[in-house]
Amino acid sequence: MAKGRVGVNEERCKSCGLCVAACPMKVLRISDKINSKGYRPVEQFKEGCIACKMCAITCPDVVLEVFLLEDDKACNA
Amino acid sequence: MKETKIFEKPKSMVDVTTHYCPGCTHGVAHRLVAEIIDELGIQEKTVAVAPVGCAVFLYNYINVDAYEAAHGRAPAVASACKRLLPDHIVFSYQGDGDLASIGMAEIVHAANRGEHITVVFLNNAIYGMTGGQMAPTTLVGQKATTCPLGRDPKLAGYPIRMCEMLSTLQAPAYIARVSVAKPKYTLKAKEALRKAFQTQIDGKGFSFVEILSTCPTNWGLRPVDATNWLEEHMMPEFPLGEFKTPA
Amino acid sequence: MGKRFLMKGNEALAEAAIHAGCKYFFGYPITPQNEIPEYMSKKLPEIGGVYLQAESEVAAINMIFGAAGTGKRVMTSSSSPGVSLMSEGISYIAGAELPCVLMNIMRGGPGLGGILPSQSDYFQATRGGGHGDYRLLVLAPSTVQEAVDLTMLAFDLAEKYRSPVMILADGFMGQMMEAVEFNETHMDGLPDPAEWAVGYMKQRGSRALVKSLYLDPEELEAHNWKLQAKYAEMTKNEKRHESYLADDAEILIAAYGTVARIARTAINELRAEGVKVGLFRPISLFPFPYEPLEALPKSVKQILTVEMSCGQMIEDIRLGVGKDMPVSMYGRVGGMTPSVEEIKDQVRKALGR
Predict the structure, then answer these.
(1) Could you tell me the fold of the domain covering A3-76?
(2) Does B188 touch chain C (CB under 8 A)?
């Protein structure tokens, strides 16, 4: 299974929760932080992201970036 | 560990917060259009025609040449623009009130002329910007501020199925209905949009993609609940699929 | 003198537009202007242009919006009820500052009215048929040759001010035949569409927005003042009129378009009887040429306006001459036309003879 990481543009998030519902691994949640518009941005709160991009594909505000994580060794091989 | 970015904001999308309500899937449709524009490499020769309605500020989010059309008239504006700039890619982006109510004549005739334009039609079964009034696509029994007891077909008729209606015409080349309510639909929506734009690029004629979309605010539902409501109630009334494909 | 052609007014208007470089026409059939789209549908494809019959006047004017946004020379034509339908779109075109030429070959109203000549859309043309504080530059020809010349001028002025320009003619002007010549003119220093129009994103390095929405009231107010400054500039530069035998006249007939030429015949016949009568003929209806009315020859004691309406231009005449000069009106409407004899009788009556 691929490993991934979700980056969040917290200022853009409107706390709609669609990504939280879309994530098959349930690694996202609405955080306790508050952005300048008063929304609580989403956060990746645990390991286990599989870089499937479902969260980013469903996000209406292009808040999320998704990174694929690979071992350096695997890359060099 | 090596990090490779595999999802980011499309280049043709402006880096701003949209005015859309939380969970409104207009933003998803905007992003898909921008992704297609980037992937086809057509940003500098694409012209957008924005409607009156929630998507009136489309041009604030997608960085291409753009018009702001009068209510319902986007297909007329787009038709003329494309005829004068045949080497450009011209698309309109319209909601259900704009396209299926006040602009019904313009969309039908642009389709019937086989204009070489692409129409992106957001159907969320309600007037969003004006505050949740009944739309031509509002479902029977669905409540709206101007049908507080639910749409009564004896008074207001039935929801209009644009894809089916336009498919009776000979000229249109590509007609499809998709949704952006959940990722599995969104992936297919992108493919339909790609086909629609490619249809225009290939000079095959009129292309039309209806996107079933949510309006959590005016439906009175939380965003996730709205996506479920769309699946349960809109999809049976507006079946997804391709209705016409280019020969 | 160039080559002369015997042409119907509507066809001459269309040919003049083509001579002015207009290759794009969008319209919807309505009597009495149908020869214009018919002519365009034949000629424009021959020169690589576009003729498109819209599904309605509403669509046609929005096609003009789309076409004009590319900065190319575009036009539409219609007649009174059709222009009413177009009025919303004209407001958008004015708001978005797009150049285009509109022709209204007026017929009688209100409502479906009739199909015979009229001048009852003066208010609509000069005060704005659509919503918002906008103005059209309005030119009113009195002969087919003048219709040709003003049409060519209209395209230049539309570009100069990035504003819609209307040729306001009545059904007579559209249907009568006269000999015309097409004298090529071109105004220097017109703005380059590449600076503002859609279709130049690559060349310009930034996109163009064709829009009229300003939700911020301060922005919308600034936009309005910008438009008003433009109309002030038009008012300074583009007033046109003709005076005929006015210098020693006791009574001045004020008339425009077809009525002015009927009045001219009446004036000639009255002069032969020794009646000192002259003509004031506005050619631009907006901006209206008030100055000649503010400085009338001392001999002029009263004004008689003659219109194919119930009295519309008379309001501008009154604005021009002020409250001390008596102004009377003679109008025929619904497709009826003031005759030479009627005008002569009105002049005699006004003079108490």
Answers:
(1) Alpha-Beta Plaits (3.30.70)
(2) no
